[in-house]
Amino acid sequence: MAVNKWIKSVVGSAVIGSFLLAGTSAYAASASVFVNGQAQYDTITVEGRTLVKLRSLTDPKWLVFAYDSKTRIVMVHTKDNSKTVQLREGEKTATVNGEKVEIDAAVVNKNGLTYVPLRFISESLGASVHYNAQEKRVIVRTPARQAQYETLMRGDLTEARGIALGLMRLKGKAPATVPGEGYHYNYYTFPEGEALRFTMNYAGYSEAYYEVNEDGLAILKWQLDNVAEREWGTKPNFTSYVYFLDEFMGGVFTYGIVDKQGKDTQLGRFHQDSTHNLVLPIKGEKRTDARP
């Protein structure tokens, strides 16, 4: 019964598991944009300003959207009605709680979707924003995803691991792996006490090691392609680690811990219809990688 309770709770966290400089436009044309952990490949640049889809900010607990096709007005309000915003296509002003507000680029409608400037998102809608100048990366998070980010970086170990496995994974310059045939299991490991570093093994065809950075993105650091027989990056060395084996084709899930001497202690094995990206609590384990 306890295992089933954790399955439902952590799978939900993992599935949920996937971010702006407001004061200047210098970043606008060159920075990559991530909203709720997802890369925005269809941003629009207007007069040096980056515009993102308003719908990319969808958060059931935060914003409600409506569109009047006759007036071409988009209406947005927070769930608690503390903020009400109206935007009209082609205009550089918005109405926020009944007051006219200047925005730094005109609202654009493209393929039926409304695009708004990044600055407006931070100043008027209250999204959590961050600009990583070194990586030229804009990070936007809605309230629910900001709370999830807090858990990922310094919250409950088991929940953080579930979130980490659901993150968008960036491969950078690593070569694409050659697919195998008949994928039937995923095997993932975390160093003992940690959530921000992990490995993924895809049915033995390929292995990958990721580190979660300060932006809450999983960055590939090492990759082994057993099909193409090639390796990229630096392989990690976990002195002791916990593992989770999801044999999804057979509906079997196994988890355990390997100590510093290499001894494998299986902690559980059970049948479950859906266990993708599942992690379970390890009795007595305490988190050691929480970031302030």
Automatic annotation (TrEMBL):
Coiled coil: none annotated. The lineage of its organism: Bacteria, Bacillati, Bacillota, Bacilli, Bacillales. Residues 43-140 form the Copper amine oxidase-like N-terminal domain. Keywords: Signal. This is Copper amine oxidase N-terminal domain-containing protein. It comes from Paenibacillus oenotherae. It holds the Pfam family Cu_amine_oxidN1. Residues 1-28 form the signal peptide.
